[in-house]
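Chain A, query sequence.
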Amino acid sequence: MRYGYWVGELPYKGLAVFSTLPDVRLEKLDWPGKDKIMFLPVRINDAVTLVGVWTFKPYCEVFGDYLTDIEMMLDEPCLIMMGDFNSNVMFDKLHRKGKTWGACLDRLSPLGFVDAYHFMKKEEQGGESTPTFFLYRHLDRPYHLDHCLTRPENIKDFKVDTLYKWLNLSDHLPIILDIEDPLGPPHPLYPPLLSDVTEGNNSGG
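Chain A, predicted structure.
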């Protein structure tokens, strides 16, 4: 990939972080947790650290283990973890105590991290009015499973692209973050689109 990076065991199923702009410099980071292949940490223009995310079963439990792996990196000031987490507090009862989505958020909160959607919309976890995923692409099976975790000072704007034309390509909708770029004007980041390059019919959890 000319302007990006790809991880995955198959050429048609994986996670990519890339830019269509040649002046955006991407550097893949040699972070711990490489055994968890669907996490892709990348430095953008030597200023922003983006971790692309696509979790598989048991979803938030895998993310919790990844947080342990990268604990020493969580103090980076402009760190964004974004993508398809396949997680929501409504599924916490399905997961081990201390390994739930709520537990992951509680772990990150003292470090200053927020979920950008909930921060901007002022909605409670589990009470989201806007879905990001439709089970089997059925509009009557909506869930909010895609997230962007970062610090409030990095957030200029955040939205879910609710144009349902995206369901022709994936069972997820794009989530879009505009960041306060320390090197210049805000740039939109679209990791969920990248993580959803390969389609799946995940039920969430």
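The two ends are 31 Å apart (CA to CA). DSSP finds four helices and 13 strands in the chain.
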